Amino acid sequence: MGLFDDFDIDMDEVKAAGGFDFEDGNYDFEISEALIQNGTKNDPDDTKFIIKYDMDEAGTYWEWFTIAVDGDPTAKKAEQSLGFLKSRLVDLGFSPSALNDLDPEDLEGIVGSLQLLTTSGKGKNAANKYQNVRNVKVAVEEEEPEPEPAPKRTRAAKPKAVEVEEEVDEEVEDDEPEETDAEIKQRVAAKQAARTAPAKTATVKKAPVKRAAKPAEEEPEDEENPFA
Fold it and tell me: Per-residue pLDDT tens for 105-160?
């Protein structure tokens, strides 16, 4: 059972991206699929990693990366292509530390923009033209601002009941200095002495009683003194 049987894909009928079907320029895209293909018509011994870009009315663009040659990922062709694949995955927003755990399905749904640019080959391929994907930028979803809360209705404040404070009799501290032990003993002794002392009788002066005047005695009439 082949990798693409579930998708009814015949990779021999799929054209590799060569720059012949798309004009150079900038395009918006959405990745609809990413998959691995073992062998193609032109490269039967290569294992390819394919990214499928849907670019609206322009059509669908396929980007190919060789990840192994005859099952060997250390082959020169595979190593060079894996370097391009790593850069592309980072361009698509994946952290380098997360690439080992990446699944092809993780690429589906990514949206952004890219540039298609055709350049000439080098060395023995100088006569060939190659169209490559450049300047991949992933769209950043803007967070919708949270709706502002409706203003709260303010109710008129109810008059507060006047609290009547209870009068509390506070103890007034005596500012007089505290008595020393000697003063206390002296005061107690004075009280005891006052209790044992004999009570003095108060002398009440009586007002002089006025006696009634005696009637004057009548002088006796002089009797004839025979001796006068």
Answer: 999 999 999 999 999 888 888 888 888 999 999 988 766 677 777 777 777 666 66
Pair 114, 133: CB distance under 8 Å: yes
Which position has the token pair 């507060």?
160
**Per-residue CA distances from 36 to 2, 76, 124, 146 (Å):** 11, 19, 29, 42
Indicate the residue type of 15. K
Token reading at 111: 């949206």
C-alpha torsion sign, points 72, 80, 95, 107: negative
Coil/strand/helix, residue 204: coil
Distance CA 163, CA 173 (A): 28
Round to whole Å and give the CA distance between 113 and 136: 6
Q: Are 25 and 45 in contact (CB under 8 A)?
A: no
Do 41 and 127 touch, CB atoms closer than 8 A? Answer: no
Strands 129-138, 111-120: pairing kind: antiparallel
d(CA 34, CA 53): 9
DSSP state for residue 24 in the 8-state scheme: S
- In this structure, how many other beta carbons lie within 10 angstroms of the beta carbon of residue 29? 23
The whole model's pTM is what?
0.54
- Whose tokens are 């918006």? That residue is 28
